[in-house]
Design goal:
Elements lengths: L1 H15 L4 E2 L1 H10 L4 E7 L4 H10 L3 H10 E7 L16 E5 L5 E6 L4 H14 L1
Parallel strand pairs: 1-3, 2-3
Antiparallel strand pairs: 2-4, 4-5
Helix pairs in contact: 1-3, 4-5
Length: 129
């Protein structure tokens, strides 16, 4: 059973790679170069089942990938090992911050969501731009 779970997580992580993830500083720099995109920061930690759901189910969805790659700059922050920027508080993970390149928060989102719901949230965030 453990081997099957590891295989599923490995396969999910290879598909998860279809979204280009960046560190925080790199994401902000990219946002300053392409002001049409919103920086999407995901605060997560390894071992978080909700984070694993997003990584294994939601992010591999081709529609989610298309929207994120077109309209967002994806930033991944491991809450246990990475620097967490000032003002990015969280109670649990995953926590998402959608920000401008000048670090103005447009929207904060906590928790994991089904594909359809997450796509709807991405559209709402884009409308706030």
């Amino acid at each position: 059973m453990k081997k099957i779970l590891l295989l599923i997580l490995f396969l999910a992580s290879t598909v998860f790679a279809d979204i280009k993830w960046h560190g925080y500083d790199e994401g902000i720099a990219l946002g300053k170069k392409d002001t049409t995109k919103i920086v999407m920061v995901m605060l997560e930690h390894k071992g978080c089942s909700s984070c694993a759901y997003m990584e294994g189910v939601v992010f591999p969805d081709k529609n989610v990938q298309k929207v994120i790659n077109k309209d967002f700059i994806a930033v991944d922050i491991d809450t246990e090992n990475d620097f967490i920027p000032d003002g990015m508080s969280y109670i649990g993970t995953p926590t998402f911050y959608f920000i401008t390149a000048d670090e103005k928060v447009l929207f904060k989102l906590q928790g994991a969501y089904h594909i359809k719901d997450f796509l709807g949230i991405l559209e709402k965030v884009k409308a706030k731009r």
